[in-house]
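Why do we care about 3D structure at all? Because function follows from shape, and shape follows, mostly, from sequence. That is the central idea of this module. The next example makes it concrete: a single protein chain, its amino acid sequence, and then its structure expressed as tokens.
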Amino acid sequence: MTTQIAPDPAQIEELMGKLLTDISAAAGLQMIHLGIKAGLWKAMAGAGPLTPADLAARSGVAAPYAREWLKHQAVSGYVDYDPATERFELPAAAAAVLGDDTQSGLVEGFAGMLSSMAGDHVLVEEAYRSGQGVGWHQRSAEHWHGMDLATRAEVVPALTADWIPALNGVGDRLRAGARVADVGCGYGAALIALAEAVPATRCTGFDYHDGSIVAARKAAAAAGVADRVMFEVADATSFPGGDFDLVLFVDAFHDLGDPEAALRRAGEALADDGTILLVEFAVADRLEDNVNPVGRLLYASSALVCTPNAIAQGARDPLGSAPGEARLTRLAREGGFTRVRRVPVEAPLNLLLELRP
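And the structure:
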């Protein structure tokens, strides 16, 4: 016989507070996203104190909507409010992030992906019951586009400016004319940026999702680099070609059905003294050390997107979105890489590992 213990009212109140915080945060992200799409953040950037009518005039948004949006941002702490003048002002830090096309892409990308996750909830719920997966190809175009926006905001600026220069000898090889592969390339933003920054490189992106490859080819053509950046539909464990001086796995390794086989194939595809750059999320190795907002986001992403995607590709024991440095290092060494180095760069959201045979 099970004995029911009456819950402590104070603990119930604390739990309800956590739930309310999560509900408010979910609504708040949509409000931030709305401000990006409607041009409200840009309209406030550098404009000084504004009334709701001022913001409506600057943005073209109807005054009642501008007023209620401003109230929400004020109580959320993103906009300063002066009760004496009843005016609102955007702080410089918020303007630099939310009023900037590239930086705001991270918020816009995650907002789109979270919206897509809600729409795909039935698929994931069924997968939980059946044990089957939900592949990237089963997600909506909004999800694919959201990931591309996040990649452009987070990865693209850092790849050529910080990450490549921090790799041993790789920058010189690229400038001399090297071959680069990106496994799990998505819409191809990373390779396109690399080709623009280092014209001597010849790049090939691989992804199992044909829709992403179509988008990547269009993006390369639009950027004028299609002559030196190619994209092919291919699995991470059997992508064609070889003699690559650099192979990239950018926030995609944990999504793979067989990451160990993917590492072995990447090793086979390397030129002499070639390098693998493995980019994953920066988390602690132990669950108890990830009790923070990043940990919450990554474990949710893992349960809703990345683990279902890996299972759809045949994974029996998926890595999940937050495998940690120790597990990744162990996998690399088991895959035949004797030189594994954590790349010393400032990357708050990412962990970079440089692998060499």
